[in-house]
Design a protein that fits this description.
Distance between the termini: 48 Å
Strand order of the largest sheet: 1-2-3
Largest sheet: 3 strands, parallel
CATH architecture: Alpha-Beta Barrel
Number of domains: 1
Number of helices: 6
GO molecular function, one term: imidazolonepropionase activity
Strand content: 5-15%
CATH topology: TIM Barrel
Keywords: Hydrolase, Metal-binding
CATH class: Alpha Beta
Number of strands: 3
Enzyme class: hydrolase
CATH superfamily: Metal-dependent hydrolases
Shape: globular
Protein name: Imidazolonepropionase
EC number: 3.5.2.7
Oligomer: single chain
Length: 151
C-alpha cells in the first residue's frame, strides 16, 4: 500500500474561481512588501479583476472556472465558495451567477455562491456613494432572478 493521507474534504473559501483574472502575481508582490495602493496604481488590484471579468464572455468564465475546479478537486477541495460582485452591473452580475449555477450542476465540488457586491465601487465613485445605487439596480434584481430561477 502506498503512503497517503485520509482526511475530510478541504474547504476553500474566498476563492476567485469564477473570475477571469487570478491575482497570484499581486500576492507575490504583497509578500515582497509592495503596498496594495501601489499595485492598484499600476493597474492591478480589484479594479483589474472587475475589468477582466466584465470583458470576459460567459463561456470564457465557465471554461476557466472549470479548469480551476478540476485542479482544486485533485488537490482535495470538496467545498468551494465562489463569489460574485465583480460585475458592478446587472448584466455582468447575472453572467457570474449563471456561471456559478452551471458549475454547481456539473461538478463533484460543492459550491457555495456568495454575493460580494459591490466588490469595488465603479470608477470615479467611492464605496459610500456607490453602494446604495448598486444594491437597488443590481443586487436586488439579481436576488429576485435567483429566487425565480431566472438567472
Amino acid at each position: 500500500m502506498a503512503a497517503g493521507l485520509l482526511t475530510p474534504g478541504l474547504i476553500d473559501c474566498h476563492n476567485p474561481s469564477g473570475l477571469r483574472r487570478q491575482p497570484a502575481q499581486e500576492w507575490e508582490q504583497r509578500l515582497n512588501g509592495v503596498s496594495y495602493q501601489t499595485i492598484s496604481a499600476n493597474g492591478g488590484g480589484i479594479n483589474s479583476t472587475v475589468r477582466a471579468t466584465r470583458e470576459s464572455s460567459e463561456a470564457q468564465l465557465l471554461a476557466l472556472a472549470q479548469q480551476r475546479l478540476d485542479r482544486l478537486l485533485r488537490e482535495g477541495v470538496t467545498t468551494l465558495e465562489i463569489k460574485s460582485g465583480y460585475g458592478l452591473d446587472l448584466e455582468n452580475e447575472r453572467k457570474m451567477l449563471r456561471v456559478a449555477r452551471q458549475l454547481a450542476q456539473n461538478n463533484a465540488v460543492e459550491l457555495s455562491p456568495t454575493l460580494l457586491a459591490p466588490a469595488s465601487p465603479p470608477r470615479r465613485r467611492n464605496i459610500k456613494t456607490a453602494r446604495m445605487p448598486i444594491l437597488r439596480w443590481c443586487v436586488k434584481p439579481c436576488c429576485d432572478a435567483v429566487g425565480r430561477g431566472a438567472v
